[in-house]
From TrEMBL:
Organism lineage string: Eukaryota, Viridiplantae, Streptophyta, Embryophyta, Tracheophyta
Protein's name in the database: diaminohydroxyphosphoribosylaminopyrimidine deaminase
Shown residues within the full chain: 66 to 427 of 428
Keyword match Nucleus: no
Keywords from the named record: Metal-binding, Zinc
UniProt enzyme class: hydrolase
Presence of the UniProt keyword Iron-sulfur in the record: no
Length: 362
């Protein structure tokens, strides 16, 4: 943190360039999964001569774009990368080799890659090639950028967040605060960030309003939990892929397919098959999106907490004092969560809500 040291107009601070990497990486928010977001800058004589970010899984890595941008100027330069350069052939060739070939003198790495096939081997490879490597600059910032990717890599499970809106008197609201129509609103930021959202199928007409209004945005997969799939509201399938998990007592997959609904029917709706589905689909982050009442999500939320699968809670407090017969209260969660470490108070964008993000301490 802190301000960059500046000497004769030349920025010398590693943190400064690493923060720039993170800023670049964020341009691809919502598009890189299952890959991480990564940014890279090439610095020579205190000037940025090349920059890049990883735009999408399958496309070249951040380092490749930054090196291309720098051209011959990369020789003897310092490369800053928010994540350890890879040393393996995946969908793309190793970044370590590209950096070595470009003859960079020094590499500054934000954090080691938790991917077991990388896990410090990239750093080792660069050092073996005689490159000076510094690891762990703005590490917390870099980890925060890819909390879902890191969690998924280390546990094999998607990063799961529970979100809800509350009135000032503590009732669940179905309003979305700084909602989907506002670019930069908190809810639209969540939609952009998460690979999938899980919604209750008993929450009626509101399902289609989850779709982001920004045309360039990532559209998360909608997972609808429906105890009664015959009572489903219209699904906004034309905009976002939707899958319904339903109770087998009420309908068959074939019945639902006839109605154009892609469904998985289960003996009993519970967390395990949903997590397995997420894994098969390669989903790294999932938002449990609670609107107004628990509805069909109640058991799922409970299980996610009890099985320590829920990582984070994002609460938006809106300036309403709702009627007693308004939304449900959060009593169903009482006693389930032992400790919540509040890390982020998301700065106000409008004066219409306050957002608190906390992490469950399992
Ligand atoms: C980097 N720079 O910009 C990214 C990295 O299939 P691939 O070739 O895209 O490889 C994916 C893995 O590479 C991914 O799981 C992670 O370990 C690393 N991502 N590495 O050096 C990048 N996106
Ligand atoms: Zn790479």
């Amino acid at each position: 943190g802190g301000l960059a040291r500046v000497r004769c107009g030349v920025v010398e601070d590693d943190g400064f360039y690493m923060r720039r990497c993170v800023e670049l990486a964020r341009r691809a928010i919502g598009f890189t999964s299952p890959n991480p977001m990564v940014g890279c800058v090439i610095v020579k004589d205190g000037k940025i001569v090349g920059q890049g970010f990883h735009p999408k899984a399958g496309q070249p890595h951040a380092e490749v774009f930054a090196l291309r941008d720098a051209g011959d100027l990369a020789e003897n330069a310092t490369a800053y990368v928010s994540l350890e350069p890879c040393n393996h052939y995946g969908r793309t060739p190793p970044c370590t080799e590209a950096l070595i070939k470009a003859k960079v003198k020094r590499v500054v790495v934000g954090m080691v890659d938790p991917n077991p096939i990388v896990a410090s081997k990239g750093v080792d490879r660069l050092r073996d090639a005689g490159i000076d490597v510094t690891v762990g600059v703005e590490e917390e910032l870099c980890k925060g950028l890819n909390e879902a990717y890191i969690h998924q890599m280390l546990t094999g499970k998607p990063f799961m967040t529970l979100r809800y809106s509350l009135s000032v008197n503590g009732h669940l609201l179905d309003q979305l605060g700084e909602g989907v129509t506002e670019a930069g609103g908190y809810y639209s930021k969540l939609l952009q960030e998460y690979d999938a959202i899980i919604l209750s199928g008993s929450l009626s007409e509101k399902l289609s309003s989850t779709i982001s209004q920004e045309s360039v945005a990532n559209q998360p997969l909608q997972i609808v939990i429906a105890s009664d799939p015959n009572q489903l509201p219209p699904l906004a399938k034309e905009v976002s892929k939707t899958i319904v998990f339903a109770d087998k007592e009420r309908a068959t997959e074939a019945d639902l397919a006839k109605k154009g609904i892609e469904a998985v029917v289960l003996d009993q709706i519970n967390l395990t098959p949903i997590l397995e589905y997420c894994k098969r689909q390669g989903l790294c982050s999932v938002l449990l999106d609670m609107r107004g009442r628990f509805g069909d999500l109640e058991e799922l939320v409970r299980e996610a907490i009890e099985q320590k699968v829920l990582q984070k809670i994002a609460v938006e407090v809106l300036p309403y004092w709702d009627e007693p017969d308004g939304g449900e209260s959060l009593v169903a969660l009482n006693g389930l969560i032992k400790r919540l470490e509040v890390k982020n108070l998301v700065p106000l964008i409008s004066n219409r809500s306050v957002v608190v993000e906390g992490y469950l301490q399992h």
